[in-house]
Design goal:
By secondary structure, the chain is α/β, with parallel strands linked by helices. The chain has helices spanning about 15-25, 70-80, 95-105, 120-125, 130-135, 150-165, 175-190, 200-205, 210-220, 225-240, 245-260, 270-285, 290-330, 335-350, 355-370, 370-385, 395-400, 405-410, 415-425, 435-445, 450-475, 495-515, 520-530, 545-550, 565-570, 580-590, 595-600, 605-615, 620-630, 635-660, and strands at about 5-10, 30, 40-45, 50-55, 85-90, 110-115, 125-130, 140-145, 265. The strands form 2 sheets. A 7-stranded mixed beta sheet has the order 2-3-4-1-5-6-8, sandwiched between helices. The N and C termini lie far apart (about 75 Å). About 45% of the residues are buried.
Length: about 650
Amino acid sequence: MENIKVALTGNPNVGKTAIFNGLTGMRQHVGNWPGVTVEKKEGTYIHKGINFLVTDLPGIYSLSAVSIDERIARNFLTEENPDVVVAIIDGMNLERNLYLVSELMDLGVNLIIAVNFMDEVEKNDMKIDIQKLSEVFGVPVVGTVAIKGHGIQKLKDEIFKASQSKSVSFIRYSDELEQYIKQIEEISRLFNIKSPFRTRFLALKLIEEDPEIFEQMRLSVNNARQFSRLLNEILSDIKQKHDDPSVFVGDEKFKFIKRTLKNIVEGSGTKSESLTNKMDNIFTHRIWGLPILFGIMYTVFQLTFTLGGIFADWLDSGMGFLSDSVLSSVQNEILASFLANGVIGGVGSVLVFVPNIFILFLLIAVLENVGYMARAAFVMDKVMNAIGLSGKSFIPMILGFGCNVPAIMATRTIEKEDDRIITAVLNPLIPCSARIPIFLAFAGTFFPKHQGLIVFSMYIIAIALIVILAKILKTTLFKGTPAPFVMELPPYRVPSFSQVNSEAWKRTSLFVKKAGTIIFAAVIAIWLLASLPTGVEYASKNSYIGLIGKAIAPIFKPNGFGNWQSSVALIFGFMAKEVVVGTLGALAGGIENLGSFLSNLFTPISAYSFMLFSLLYVPCVASLGILLKEVGMKWTVLSVVLLISLAYFVSMAFYLIGSLFI
């Protein structure tokens, strides 16, 4: 079967993911691009007997290769040579989106344009002449409403046709710019330049003084000095007339786009802009924006426990029944203990919270799809600036609610090195999804009427400590001004249920896989240590795990949990935070015993102290590994010392002060 490579590209927030899902369905694979931490999504579909391999490129605004995302997209388009490139544009923002289309045409790819959100265009009393747009740009154009699946079949047909013809079109700019392009193309031919780029694209990027292209030319041209002299003569002429050559090229592109749209678009789309502006007056208000953000996040956590608790109780009962069934039906005593106390008790103690985690991810996906998370970053920009960081530092913080590992990786998008290091070092303080089972187990046992408030307080404490520590680091070790924060705020949209559900399941499945691997391995080790030496009572203080715990327990006595069981749980939790509950569940002899087990070990005040320690100490081995890779040994050691010290002294202070009032 013939394979055709298709690349999807476009600005952020144009519905690329929805079109990718519409084309590929369930035939998808998510990984990372080689050498970087940017997510790479690939998928396949079969159409008319041909296998189409689809790659979803990162959302970008141009092919200037200033950011990692732009570099990935440009390198893929030139090095992988996809047979068809689909440029997805927002029908409500044609002028801005068509700038990237012009760059793709300069690059000389086999292009199709997909105009998405055509339903919003219609609602705003606008009309886009798809046929005329196709004629002007000389490429196929398809109107789509991706979240509803409208236009996807037509897009597949056009991709098939384009894969067979492989035609290339280009935009003709003003005579002046065309003359400069021609001159540089002649110089390129004169020096026999070897480049993966089409000479027209190369000429335009040299006019824009693209640093990466300049470096490539310096290394590939035999007589680099002579080439630079001739090129600088052309650039000097442009600068005399237009000051900045890159602005000159940009202006030429937008002049062409504006001329084109006059004859293609009817209506202004002010209805959508008006609604977005009205909503932004509320959600990004300079005074009320931050309280609204905290109110929304509190509601998210409250719903997570209220709704998730119903399903968690069912799972809890199911795990208890399964454990009892194993104990009564398996004749071999050792095997029965391993399955009931180790596997079901350990892994089951974590899996019982999957409904809560799914609902949390579902609600966050809704906020992302509605367009609110971008506003959250915008609102937090003021807070981040107050502590000396850019609003860009808030993006990895948001990612940290899922997992600290990709969140630390995401700090690469922060241009200023000092801001990047501070954000990476403090990111492990963000409560990732792995800590949720700990919070839920303890809040459910000791604070059943106020679970949402108790867990929400963990997040507030973490954020408050990050603000304080960032301010301290910024005024001591890292002095300087933060980089400016520029972020596009997408229009508010009704979320797609299928897309939101898909994102939530994807994130939850990663959590479940972790439970089936790391946590499973940990509970086996815990069960063995709790069962040996032969003849001791399971999980008693005389077992190996009891002896280890007793040696460490005195350290945590000032914190209120000087029992050996919690000490062992914290040690094993260093592998992965979910293992804390898995350890306690295994030692309790099953999930059904966990509540009473915890009640015998903790009081409400020591339970909250334990939650604080679990919140603040080193998240997991994986996060330390990626931190070491991103910021080096010096800052990783600082982070570890800082986190452990913070966990110990904050937890101890809370317990000692709290005990005075109880």
